[in-house]
Every structure is written in C-alpha cells, then in structure tokens.
Amino acid sequence: xxxxxxxxxxxAKDISLKELSKMxxxxxxxxxxxxxxxPRNLLLAMVGEVGELSEIFQWRxxxxxxxxxxxxxxxxxxxxxxxxxxxxxxRLADICGIDLGDAAxxxxxxxxxxxxxxxx
Length: 120
Known about the structure:
The protein has helices spanning 3-11, 17-30, 39-57, 72-95, 100-114.
C-alpha cells in the first residue's frame, strides 16, 4: 500500500491529534524536513496559511453557517486551508513539547470558569 493510500485510509476514520502528530512526524522524517521544523519556522508557516485562509473570506462579507451558497470547489479549498493551519499548529505544539489536546481541554475549563454560563 502506497503512502497516498495509507493517508486516504486514515481519513476514513475519526483521527486524534496524537495520530495526526505521529503522521506529521513520519512525513517530516521521510523527507528529511525535521531540520527545518523549528518553532519559529513552523509558526511563520502557519501564519502564512492563516493569511491564505483569510483570503477565502476577504470579499465575501458575512457568510451563513454551513456555507449554503458556496460552490463545492470553494468548500474543498476552505477545507484544505483549514487543514494546513491545523497541521502546522499540531506540528508546532509537538516540536514545543505541548500536548495540544490536554492544553485545549484545560483552556476550555479555564474559560468556563472565567465566563460562566448564564442561568435562565
């Protein structure tokens, strides 16, 4: 089974941040890219991808949830750019020794305390 087929097979199931992190590590090692994956380089690459993501929305004004008026090709492009941002974020966290899932869970708890739900 080729690399592309293995990646497609992974897509067929729910995948964890840890699994994505492992896939990214293997991808970088196979290409000898680890030497380029410093925190600074990964952050700057991610910021570049956020810029590309922003361009998709730049002249659309407000859009409805679910993007009902978008072409499928536009939604696919959006998914690709969102994925680029996510993958750089996961790789950055991994290189910095941060468990992103754990950090995000703790942040949600902190936010719940900081911004309690209104009782109705």
